[in-house]
Amino acid sequence: MAKTTHKKTPSRFGHPYLLVGLIAILAIVCFYPLTKYFFLQDDFILLERAVFAPNTFLAEMFDSEPGLFRPLTKVFYFGSMYKLFGLDPFPYHVVSLVLHVLNIFLVFTLLTKFKIKTTPALVVTSVFALHVAFLDVIAWISCVQQLTALLFLLLGFYLGIRAIETRYLRFVVLTLVAYVIALMSMEQALALPLILLLYVYQQEPAKTRKARLKRALNHTAPHLAVMIMYLLFMLGWKGIPGEGPYVFHLGGNIVANLLTYLDWMYNLSVVMPFIANVGSPGLTVGHLVILLLVVYNLARNRHSLVVFSLAYYLLTIAPVLFLGQHTFYLHNYIPAFGMILLLAPVMEDLDDLLAQRNPKHSRIVAGVLVGFVAVMCITKVRANESNHLRKDILLPKNFVLRRAVIAKNAYDDIKRKTNTRSGKDRLFMIYRERSSWYKDNVVAALGKGSALKLFYSSPDLDVFFKDQGDTLRDYRPAGSQILFFDHMGHCYTSDEMGGTHGDALRILEPE
Description:
Elements: H1 16-31, H2 42-52, H3 54-62, H4 71-85, H5 89-113, H6 118-129, H7 135-139, H8 144-166, H9 169-183, H10 192-203, H11 209-238, H12 252-265, H13 285-299, H14 303-321, H15 336-357, H16 359-386, E1 388-390, E2 393-396, H17 399-417, E3 426-431, H18 437-445, H19 450-455, E4 462-467, E5 471-473, E6 480-485, E7 491-492, E8 506-508
Parallel strand pairs: 3-4, 3-6, 5-8
Antiparallel strand pairs: 1-2, 6-7
Helix pairs in contact: 1-5, 1-6, 1-16, 2-3, 2-4, 3-4, 5-6, 5-8, 6-15, 6-16, 8-9, 8-10, 9-11, 10-11, 10-14, 12-13, 13-15, 14-15, 15-16, 17-18
């Protein structure tokens, strides 16, 4: 990679990592309100399996059936956290914030490895730290998978660079350990060996391309070996999912997904949409921003940096481009470093220009930019909390916040109104109104019944979601319980419904 001609200079504000710490504090202040939200959807499913059937859940990660391989973040994390904290979501959110903070420090550290001067590196680090489009990653407890995978991907990259620079065996071992942990967290970390290979190739001083490639392959051979074994395991042994949200599709969805993710990358003014599973209809201002960054850096003879930035982004976003209907902001979290790196030299040029005229101007502009991103983030977090479905339905449009509110309403009502140690083995959940999307929204929020098994601490509880007028088959008074629920997730007992089920239900008891 072409090196810049200037010497690395200290920040004009003070010690750089103290300033990174201030950015991290800003991120905590901005995202801290999200720690009040409850579990939702996948959280309950993962908790139920990790708590009630950990051995079976873990075995499925290694069997020959198609599926995801995330034993660290699906099995071990949820199982151990539940043993420590149960259904108190706050500690889970604290872990998410801590992981994000660690990623902030790693992003800054790697920017300095690319010879980006401290002040512009701080500015672009704040863009990553305070990116409002990462709201879902921070708010959704299940996104510990993205947070952990990026942490160990970046750590493995940094340790890989150190291993090459120092030739110390301990760094070789540590970078491989980090890579394995990243692979056990999420598939988007797969690209680490290729990212490291490209970095080494661009830094290698050998004159011929063949010699540079040979030396780069020698340096990254252990990582490539791990990657090949992982691919053989996933593609040869487990196979590609043929059903569910992770079904692969080869078609126009690949381009549509890529355009969507690129459009979201520099969208700092985000109020989360009602539906996230939509592809971008065409070129947008977001695409133009990225194009201008590419053209500008190429014009400044930064070809190697442009190639690396785009390669990092494309390699880490690639695993989710093939998904047919699973396009969410959270998938941009791991690839974001590529686009942050693309922005960094532009900010560096601006900083140099201002510093030449007056160093104070450089400091002021850098502070204003960081402050602007922070204000944008904290404002939009609040906006997403209050951007409701309708005036009469005070649920956030953002599906993570919305379903967390619904699940908390159900949890509070069930704990307050029912005997969760009653020994009932069947629970009939009856929607009080006409069946609609709102009912499906509640069912999804409760993990399709997994939440209720956790609320009642009963792994064998059978949960049935029904509509008014449905027939309840095999209802046993001694072993069954009926609850009614509404679109907000609030639950009501039979007594609250008037003591009888009236015309709501037709009950058929077993003969």
